[in-house]
Amino acid sequence: MITIPLVLLNLQDDGFHLLVEVVVFNKTFKAVLDTGASKTVFDKVTVEKYLEDQQLQISDRVSTGLGTTNMESFTWQVPQIEIGGFQLNDFEVAVLDLSSINYAYENLSIEPIIGVIGGDILTRYRGVIDYGKMTLTLKQKRRASQQAFSN
C-alpha cells in the first residue's frame, strides 16, 4: 500500500480537478485523477515527443466523455509508469489528443497535463481518495499464491 499526495486545483469557480504527479519517460508530469474516466488516457501530442509512431497502436474503440465521439484513438503499452512512487509496468493506456484540455489549462495559467488517471487503475489497485488529507491510496494486487492462502 502506498499513499500518494494530491493537489486540489480550483478551476476559477468552475469546479475542481485533482492532480497527481506521474513519472513517464523518466520525466515528471501532472495528470488529472478522474474517477469518472473508465480508462487511463495519455495526451498524444506529449507522448509523440518521446515515442516513435509505430509504438502506438490504432484502436477501434470509440472515445466518449472527452467532448467528441469521432476522435482518433490509439493504445500504448507503457513500459513503466510511476504514480507518486507507485510503480506500474507494461500498463496499457489509451492515447488521445488532449490538446483542448491543455489549451483550457493554459488559459487558466495551469501547466499542461500528460493525461488522466482513470478507473482502470483506481479499480485494479483499490484506490481510495481522502479529500481531508488530499491523498490517494493504492494497493498492489496480491499474487494468486497469496490469495489462495488468505481464503
Outline of this structure?
This protein is α+β, with helices and mostly antiparallel strands. It contains 4 helices and 11 strands, in the order βββββαβββαβαββα.
Explain the overall architecture.
The protein has 151 residues and is an alpha+beta fold. It has one domain (2-150): Cathepsin D, subunit A, domain 1 (Beta Barrel), CATH 2.40.70.10. Helix content is 19%, strand content 40%. It has four helices and eleven strands. A hairpin with a 4-residue loop joins strand 10 and strand 11 (135-138). The longest helix is centred in the last third of the chain and has 9 residues, at 99-107. The radius of gyration is 16 Å and the shape is globular.
Would you spell out the secondary-structure blueprint of this structure?
Blueprint: E1 2-5, E2 7-10, E3 16-24, E4 27-33, E5 41-43, H1 44-50, E6 57-58, E7 74-83, E8 86-96, H2 99-107, E9 115-117, H3 119-124, E10 128-130, E11 135-138, H4 144-150
Parallel strand pairs: 4-9, 5-8
Antiparallel strand pairs: 1-11, 2-3, 3-4, 3-7, 5-9, 6-7, 7-8, 10-11
Keywords:
151 residues; alpha+beta; Cathepsin D, subunit A, domain 1; three-stranded antiparallel beta sheet
Spell out the helices and strands N to C: EEEEEHEEEHEHEEH
CATH class: Mainly Beta
Summing up helix and strand content along with how strands pair, one would put the structural category as alpha+beta
Radius of gyration, rounded?
Answer: 16 Å
General form: globular
Number of separate domains: 1
- N- and C-termini, Cα separation: 20 Å
The CATH topology label is Cathepsin D, subunit A, domain 1
| Unreliable sequence segments | 145-151
Tally of strands = 11
Count of separate DSSP helical elements: 4
CATH architectural label = Beta Barrel
